[in-house]
């Protein structure tokens, strides 16, 4: 039997002299009771890369994002962002170091307009003091104007065409996802984590999100996305990590990873299982059954 082919090199690797990784996840491990949700996961993402985290349901992908953003503390392992270790820091401190995210189940603030939602994201970076805010000083007023103008710019950039003054929760699903991305961008991240950004979108909308990811990457961002849409992954991700049952199955270029036997098996089951199921079906139907 031939040995498996080596994974093709992905651009922007990390030997000496290359830039510090945007995200450096080493040996990350998390158990919930007796269940090892994430087991010894190591992922290194160079700056300005679109990296996908793939795997069947329950593989541990969202748990990895939750640990990178500080929502869940790991049992073991370390996480560094541009060389700065963030393991066990609270979420707001990790956000201040330039990590933002969107959620698998959209989490918009109830009762806020589209514009207010994005303005809320910008508060992480605002410089005004409490006294300035209460007294509505000229500096405060100027900053508020700037923040609102920037929020409008971000909404245009992510392709929200709806009126910015309607309640965000009343928008169609695809636009709600875009508003969430704009809110994350308002925190001025260097690394943006997206949990299933195209869930519930049709092909054309998914393609637009893919193109937006490329624009964001080209403007300097590093993007890490959990995604089930393989077409999007193959077209837009430059590298992927494939997980299954908490463990790492494969890492490298998307097409290469998706062709590996253990990755195909994790998604589609073993060929021998498929043959067994077909036989069982035939047996159940009995002779002459169709
Ligand atoms: N807070 C929690 N408490 C207990 N178990 C959890 C918790 N969060 C996740 N799990 C379990 O950990 C495992 C990994 O879950 P996770 O959500 O990370 O998977 P996933 O790969 O993101 O799946 P999906 O694609 O379905 O979203 C699952 O078995 C899940 O039920």
Automatic annotation (TrEMBL):
Gene Ontology annotations for the cellular component aspect, listed alphabetically: plasma membrane
SUPFAM superfamilies with a match to the protein in the record: P-loop containing nucleoside triphosphate hydrolases
Record InterPro entries: AAA+_ATPase (IPR003593), ABC_AA/LPS_Transport (IPR051120), ABC_transporter-like_ATP-bd (IPR003439), P-loop_NTPase (IPR027417)
Keywords, ordered alphabetically: ATP-binding, Nucleotide-binding, Transport
Any one Gene Ontology molecular-function term assigned to this protein's record: L-isoleucine transmembrane transporter activity
Entry keyword DNA-binding: no
GO biological process, one term: D-alanine transmembrane transport
Annotated ABC transporter domain residues: 23-270
The name this protein goes by in its record: Amino acid/amide ABC transporter ATP-binding protein 1, HAAT family
Species name: Micromonospora echinospora (Micromonospora purpurea)
């Amino acid at each position: 039997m031939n040995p498996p082919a080596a994974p093709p090199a992905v651009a922007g690797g990390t030997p000496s002299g290359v830039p510090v990784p945007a995200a450096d996840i080493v040996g990350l491990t998390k158990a919930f009771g007796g269940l090892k949700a994430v087991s010894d996961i190591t992922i290194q993402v160079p700056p300005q890369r679109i990296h996908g985290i793939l795997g069947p349901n329950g593989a541990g992908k969202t748990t990895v994002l939750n640990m990178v953003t500080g929502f869940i503390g790991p049992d073991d392992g370390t996480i560094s962002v541009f060389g700065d270790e963030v393991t066990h820091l609270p979420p707001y401190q990790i956000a201040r170091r330039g990590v933002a995210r969107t959620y698998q189940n959209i989490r918009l603030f109830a009762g806020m307009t589209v514009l207010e939602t994005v303005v809320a994201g910008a508060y992480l970076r605002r410089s005004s003091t409490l006294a300035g805010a209460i007294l509505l000083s000229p500096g405060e007023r100027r900053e508020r104007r700037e923040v609102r103008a920037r929020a409008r710019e971000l909404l245009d950039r992510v392709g929200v065409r709806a009126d910015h003054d309607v309640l965000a929760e009343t928008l169609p699903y695809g636009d709600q996802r875009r508003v969430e991305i704009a809110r994350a961008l308002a925190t001025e991240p260097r690394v943006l984590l997206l949990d299933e950004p195209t869930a519930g979108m049709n092909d054309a909308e998914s393609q637009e999100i893919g193109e937006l990811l490329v624009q964001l990457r080209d403007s300097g961002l590093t993007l890490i996305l959990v995604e089930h849409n393989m077409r999007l992954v193959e077209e837009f991700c430059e590298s992927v990590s494939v997980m299954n049952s908490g463990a790492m199955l494969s890492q490298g270029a998307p097409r290469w990873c998706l062709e590996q036997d253990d990755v195909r098996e994790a998604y589609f089951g073993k060929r021998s299982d498929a043959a067994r199921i077909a036989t069982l079906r035939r047996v159940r139907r009995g002779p002459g059954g169709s």
